[in-house]
Structure prediction request, 351 residues.
Amino acid sequence: MKRLIQIIAVAAVVTALILIKIFALTPKKEKAVQPAANPPLPVECYLCRDTLVDYRIETVGTLNAREEVNIVSEITRKVIAIKMKEGALVSAGQLLFKLDDADITSRISKLTIQERLAEANESREKILLASGGISQERFEETSNTRQTLQAEIDILKVDLAKTEIRAPFSGKIGLRNVSTGALVTPGTVLANLQDIGRLTLDFSVPERYARDLQPGSPVYFTTDYLPEKLVASVEAAEPAVDERTRTLLVRASVQNVGGNLVPGTSARVSLVLKEQALSIFVPTSALIPSIKGYTVFINRGGKALASPVKTGIRNSDLVQVLEGLKPGDTLVMTNLLRIKNGSPLTLTNLH
Prediction:
């Protein structure tokens, strides 16, 4: 038993010596190579500064004739003459259509003869009344007869005037919808008349700008069929905002010199609302949208610093920053998808 213990002890010592020799002779591993740090990202930046800009609204409007009316008949009659030429310019009061008036003129002639007879009777009885030959009541009956005839003639003259359909204002007449011999009734549209000398341009703006519109403000617009940029002048606006669209309908007036503008066509409208006071305006491309709003990256000491911002009005290229930036900040504009808060940056261009 004692010999077994000695053998075990010797084996343990030998094993220990072998392990010590192994660990002593094994070369130490070199330290792991540390991964290289992330290289700086090249970025273009925008230097924030107070800016004075014009704010414009881009929208679509519609050109309309200043005055427009459907030419209709007020009575049921047959068309006996058409005095208008389709597509021509007409003047106010010009005869466009003539309706049959034979029966009306005949009745007027008959009543005119009766009126002259009643007038003669009234003159004779007036003399008799002065001499006491007739009573006052008899004279009044004769006078009433003459006045009644005169009233009936006046009524027929009104109907006679309705057989002549005239242009209510100067303008351009459209296509006729009836022919000679057609029987027209009240409300039948015979043609359309539009005053194309002056047009209106109707467009809508968001409700937030309702108080910024002033009569006389210039409105610039273009059309698909004219190459040049045209100008109109704000005339008026609706007194209330449309509850469905939350927009305000605005009307501007346009001088249609040469008659080149066509009523009913669309126009691309550019409206200068007002000149903003000094404020920070930055490129819209530098904003990173999120659920809570917008965030930007500031290049501060070669490191990216995320900063939430509060925005104001916009135009086609710039957005106003109300909070989150100050003049002198260097705003990162490029490589936004690769940048994180604290990322190293290298400036390649400053706008």
About this structure: The CA atoms of residues 171 and 195 lie 4 Å apart. The helical segments are 2-25, 102-131, 136-162.
